[in-house]
Design goal:
By secondary structure, the protein is an alpha+beta fold. The protein is 31% helix and 31% strand. It starts with 11 loop residues before the first strand and ends in a 6-residue tail after the last helix.
Length: 121
């Protein structure tokens, strides 16, 4: 018997910043106008990670409006991002579980989402 070689695709973890609008049952504070979520999502490529993230957020009654991709850990390091051990741990969890991990959620109040678009990571 010969063993077939399976073409193994390499999952990677991508850092995504997702802006969300309001929706009934979204879990945001009542007076918030929306929010931003820092997410680590696994995928074969960034497009897959984005698709999976948006689908999961919609299932969680969130209203994704915009997704900004920051790339893999290697790409972020090349850009000079400082990545601490806690962040690396969450990235590893997303990879191990082939999942989407919400690392941080920030509610926006009265137009803050336009002020904070130059957030540094």
């Amino acid at each position: 018997m010969t063993k077939e070689k399976k073409k193994k695709t390499r999952q990677q973890v991508y850092t995504l910043l997702v802006q969300v609008g309001r929706r009934d049952g979204d879990g945001l504070p009542d007076d918030a106008t929306g929010g931003a979520l820092m997410i680590y999502a696994s995928g074969i490529d960034e497009a897959e990670a984005v698709r999976e993230t948006v689908a999961i957020l919609k299932q969680a009654d969130l209203n994704p409006l915009d997704v900004t991709g920051y790339g893999t850990v290697e790409e972020r390091e090349e850009q000079g991002h400082d990545i601490d051990s806690e962040e690396r741990s969450l990235m590893q969890r997303a990879l191990d579980e082939n999942s989407v991990v919400v690392a941080h959620m920030t509610p926006f109040y009265h137009g803050e989402e336009t002020e904070g678009e130059s957030t540094e990571h």
